[in-house]
């Protein structure tokens, strides 16, 4: 029975606590209420009874729902029974908030029980001084292995890797390998393949577990191993690694250092998080919200958003100066001021559409060779076609509203120009940023709207001025 | 030395064809040139020699880079040597384009060699008539298993599942199980766990492969199986299934029908694609570009974008009518027309920031209970603080530019109002759509900018009219 519990799958543990999530997958409100009551009353054992059996990912969700004091109460009341891997599942701001309040000795005890990759993701956020204090409180072997991971650059494969893996020599048989695994107590928690290495820990091949199970005991490992290898450099960016997982449907991959020595493995569950984060990042960058979390403080949020708004203020003032050039024109015909935002707004939206498609295609590396030329051509044509469609629509509406066919023709002409410009800018701006090695998601939006605003106002007011002889 | 090359670290099979990808991970231009020459010359064997060894994901990338005629030439020249699973890796429009040109008999031969989930994803795009013709050309067992999967709703777990899996009775030992796997020829290609089922195929437990390898031959399977199970209903939406994978770090999970009978398995590689698509979808919906691919035709692209632009035209006209209310005011003071887009644009951007954070938090199910209240409060406060900051900035700039402190005060007041409204609308609009069971990504952007435009223009022109007594 106790063995049963040992083997209990993390994933299922949530189910043990009965009614933890409702049908929509949200945490049960009654469950939370009970936990809050226990926390308030300081009933450490009851807190442990309800939180203890949860999967660390569920514990993370619970922490995110609690407020600052409740979170600290939970961690303090559970003490050494708190599973620190839950901290890898919460927003960075919450993680830091909790770790700052805990004594380094408590962090060291918590980190000691974690997988290498989880421990690294907690330690990398700490101040250097605290980090060193925690590290020096750890057993030698763990300290060295964590230090080694932390030496790799931020967001590299080396930071995300798990350093426990099974490496065997090529001359073993399937039988040897199975016996070794039955005997050895110090195996990784979960693994999907075995690595065949030479004496210098250079990887010679990999063997998926199912292949070992299908082969007879006498089969030499060398004869069943994969020799066309996918290996990832520990210094490589985690996004690049995630792209390999996605492209080749990988579940686990070996990580090697600059000398080709195997130092760890990356597993797909960590890469899923990276893929999610990457898509999210583009999303946020386009809107200028940096790497904000919903649990960030007001001050952090203001700080993260102001720079983007300042840039927008500059471009808005610039746009306004373009309008200012036509002061006299507007004075003679106020209808122009009323209509001009329509041209700018339509251009802005069309530009955003093209830009979104381009930014995502760049992020997914979909724009090789011929596809790029086709995409540019298509976007310009789409801009032209949409320009015609909306020129007719707005032209007719304007002519009817003001009983002035000429005004309708002017706005129609401006619309066609701005829609073509929108399509062109929507694709060329992100492409140029990409060529300049800047992240196209970060600055495209502001450039594209500036272009469509300026061109929209300029074309409309300019054509009107010429047409009606208002200059 | 040649052995060295075989094992060089980077995407497996791709290497066999020598320099298939360059350092940036893009397909080598020279490689493509050579392939194009072979295709043009109709050299079937050479085409097969260079494309054959590629991973199907790489073949998919190659297909995407070719133009329409080259794609067809490739598939026709390779004939039965073409791996149809490459078609699961290309944009839907390209997939359909190729399948439409192929005779159904050729599709049937190609599909017969595929895993069940890949076959389903090709067949589900076909017209019912073609689909039935392909199905009836397949061997009975495959036909029935595919039909069964196709009976599940679109985008359900049942459509994405693999129907090959290993199920054993609970009374077997580890030894029995290993012997069975050594003996049985008809096993799935790759698998990560074994399912323990009763006579009615109801799942009793799961055993990860590493656990079998660590246990002695005499160990009863029942004593080492996981009994707290995560199972997915075949009718469940694939996004919900993907969320489970993400939350619980799963690699493989059993799929059961409405009677609790095990019918298949989902693996993490398919879920990675779903996670990617889901994030992507929100991204595209916000910009109003639907589920476009970069390889869509011009006509499809126009068709997908026009509806969004029509909505935007309506709201732009509405906004323009709000400005029209202040015709007389603008006539008396043209500076208002020059300045008004600044207030609207700043509000639009601030609103987009809040909206982006909210839409993503809703998609990730991060807004349970207390966090929601905190987020609303934070966004309103952030709007107020940013309002003050930018009110001062633009107020000073305006006062200096026009030498008119009063005009500066008016634009400052309008800015504060619009920034608070932006924060409030940016969070309440997606929340309301979510409550109404609409996808908040799809319509939030247009509502939020309409609100910030209308309020921006109205507040600025209205305050100016009152202040300067222009009504």
Explain briefly what this protein structure is.
Chains A, B: GO terms for molecular function: magnesium ion transmembrane transporter activity; metal ion binding. Two copies of one chain form a homodimer. With 471 residues, chain A is mostly helical.
The structural domain count of chain A equals 3
Number of strands of chain A: 6
CATH class of the largest domain in chain A: Mainly Alpha
Query: What is the helical fraction of chain A, as a range of percent?
Result: 55-70%
- What's the CATH architecture name of the largest domain in chain A? Orthogonal Bundle
CATH domain topology of the largest domain in chain A: Tetracycline Repressor, domain 2
Question: Spatial order of the strands in the main sheet of chain A?
Answer: 1-2-3
Q: Note the beta-strand portion of chain A.
A: 5-15%
Task: Name the helix and strand elements of chain A from N-terminus to C-terminus, one letter apiece.
Answer: HHHHHHHHHHHHEHEEHHEHEEHHHHHHH
Mean pLDDT of chain A: 87
CATH 4th-level superfamily of the largest domain in chain A:
SLC41 divalent cation transporters, integral membrane domain
Query: What is the gyration radius of chain A calculated from CA atoms?
Result: 30 Å
Task: Decide which structural class fits the backbone of chain A.
Answer: mainly alpha
Membrane topology (chains A, B): Multi-pass membrane protein
Keywords (chains A, B): CBS domain, Cell membrane, Magnesium, Membrane, Metal-binding, Transmembrane, Transmembrane helix, Transport
Domain CBS (chains A, B): 161-223, 225-281
Protein name (chains A, B): Magnesium transporter MgtE
